[in-house]
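User: Second chain of the day. Same drill as before.
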Amino acid sequence: MNNPRGKTRILVPLCGALIFLFLCMPILITLPMSFSDSDTLQFPPSGFSLRWYENFVQSPVWVQAMSTSLQLAAVSSVIALTLGSLAAYGLVRGNLVGSIGLEAHFMAPMIIPNIITAIALYFAFAKLDMLGTFAGLVIAHALVAIPFVITVVTGALRAFDVRIEQSARSLGAKWPRILLSIVIPNIYPALFVAWIFSFVISFDEVILTYFLSGTYVTIPKEMFTQLQEQVDPTITAVSSLLIAGSLLLLLATARLSVRLASENRG
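Assistant: Same format as last time:
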């Protein structure tokens, strides 16, 4: 007789492996192409070379774009973490009337397509004379990252025992002292995970940047422009470096998530 459970145990992992392989196909193609010695995109590569990585490091345009992306992501992620964490604390501990609707409002940038947000900010910044400014880019990137911070920090705060804060308040501790000495040290893994999410979202954002950046050039914008004007194999080297950086951040996030889960169980 056929054993349905036995087939299920085989088919489910097999389907999962095939889907994972399908999702990894762009990476498996891009990485070898970044080490090609050909002047055009070629897969499989005809020879091994580091010329495209050297071209990236020696190109003033790519180096400036990387510097702008890192600065923009660093500043906007810190702002998003600060504002999003305070908003999450207010939603969880504030006992506000209509907090569910307010939380849904905070989640709106996650649902609304970025192209709509970009158009709205374009007209708003045009009136405020902030188009093509670094401050405008920071505000726009922080805006789309804040909902992710709220989601992560809200979960951590709900898992944290509020009675500890109440005990500190009964002993005379003020709210800033409670926040700095009790809350933050206990949920710091979640805060770091939220910051990583914010940093990656800002670094990878292209639509808002394309509409609002003016003369500022980031890595995603430069890649988009290069693909429109010419196919430069340097893009494969840049993509490979971004993939490696994303994997490192993903591993750090996973490790912190595991630590946070174990601390919550404890």
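The two ends are 46 Å apart (CA to CA).

User: Great, on to the next one.
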